[in-house]
Design brief:
Blueprint (H helix, E strand, L loop, with lengths): L2 E5 L8 H13 L10 E5 L5 H11 L5 H4 L3 H6 L11 H4 L17 E4 L8 H6 L7 H6 L8 E5 L6 H8 L3 E6 L3 H21 L8 E10 L7 H16 L8 E2 L9 E3 L2 H8 L11 H25 L1
Parallel strand pairs: 1-4, 1-5, 2-3, 2-4, 5-6, 6-7, 6-8
Helix pairs in contact: 1-12, 9-10
The structure holds adenosine-5'-triphosphate and magnesium ion.
Length: 310
């Protein structure tokens, strides 16, 4: 059975997509008991950034009707009466999505279920339709045996598509920038997730647990102000005491006990334009090497945390 993880924050631009894409690639590339796990990355954001990134301009389904049948947008549209019901997972999923320049698979066990911009109208349609909160679960439950992990890249909101992801997820991870607003945001977000779960439990396949917070977008070459991490941890402690999040929720730290964080850098920005995860970007020198090493540490810690809770 797949372990399902949502990357979520209703604050925009905190590197949800960048972290979800690189984590998925890193996870699929990490041997567990001698084998590479199979990972399905699902792009649930109408901005479709993960899809645009991994498919590049040539493979990205824009205004081609045939291609649109093969997207998360179409998968959700099929819930409405009078829609053609022509979504087929096996046609839509892009297997081994990451290729090198010669078309060879770079991460054979990473698949993508892409989205497209038309999904922007979905939420409005879902608002007026009953029974929409377990739609993602119903569409993907028979794929759970085909994947070890499913990773959901969520839009910066808590609307229906995001709730679908949460109610189908074992865990959620919050990428966060450690400033004053974000700290308040984490509090509001965790309470809101808790409330949504309580309200919609009957649609839930899983009880989504906060796995942890991961620090992102620290200024280029800057080191982390440790106090900021401690502030976030004290926020977490309050949320745990109030039972809004799991008592096991953490701020991700490395084996030395130092917070794991990702720096902003122009090199990483460039890697995103390269149509491959930063994990497979060969230029960029030491900044990229540091990013890769920290992403591997983060991935290992996620695996450890999942193991600890099972
Ligand atoms: N480490 C980084 N260095 C440089 N640029 C970055 C880094 N991480 C993310 N970015 C850039 O910051 C912007 C926001 O990142 P990303 O799209 O991953 O955030 P997001 O939280 O998914 O945003 P949204 O809320 O819009 O979905 C993007 O333009 C991305 O290219
Ligand atoms: Mg995003």
């Amino acid at each position: 059975m797949a372990i399902k993880i949502s990357f979520i924050n209703f604050k925009g631009g905190v590197a949800k997509t960048t972290t979800a894409v690189n984590f998925s690639a890193c996870l699929a590339n990490t041997k567990i008991d001698g084998e590479n796990p199979t990972v399905l990355l699902v792009d649930l954001d109408p901005q479709s950034n993960a899809s645009l990134w991994l498919l590049g301009k040539t493979r990205f389904p824009i205004r081609n009707e045939h291609q649109q049948e093969k997207t998360v947008f179409r998968m959700f549209m099929d819930m409405f009466p009078r829609e053609p019901k022509n979504f087929r997972f096996k046609d839509a999923v892009v297997q081994s999505v990451v290729k090198d320049r010669h078309g060879h698979d770079l991460v054979p066990t990473l698949d993508l279920l892409p989205n497209t911009y038309d999904a922007i109208d979905l939420e409005e349609r879902m608002m007026t339709h009953q029974g929409v909160l377990d739609y993602l679960a119903k569409q993907l439950e028979d794929k759970e045996d085909s994947y070890d992990y499913m990773v959901f890249d969520c839009a910066p909101n808590l609307y229906y598509t995001t709730i679908n992801a949460l109610l189908f997820s074992n865990f959620y991870i919050i990428p966060v920038y450690p400033d004053f607003f974000s700290r308040a945001g984490v509090r509001v977000l965790c309470k809101a997730i808790h409330e949504r779960y309580k309200e919609y439990t009957k649609f839930a396949t899983e009880k989504p647990e906060l796995l942890g917070l991961i620090l992102t977008r620290i200024k280029e070459n800057a080191t982390l102000d440790q106090g900021r991490a401690v502030d976030l941890e004290s926020e977490l402690k309050t949320l745990i005491a109030q039972k809004y999040v799991s008592p096991d929720a953490i701020l991700f730290r490395d084996d030395n006990g130092d917070p794991i964080y990702f720096n902003d850098s122009t090199q990483i920005g460039r890697s995103i334009e390269s149509e491959a995860p930063t994990m497979f970007y060969s230029a960029g020198g030491s900044t990229i090497q540091t990013y890769k090493a920290r992403m591997q540490t983060f991935t290992n810690k996620v695996l450890e945390e999942i193991e600890r809770r099972s």
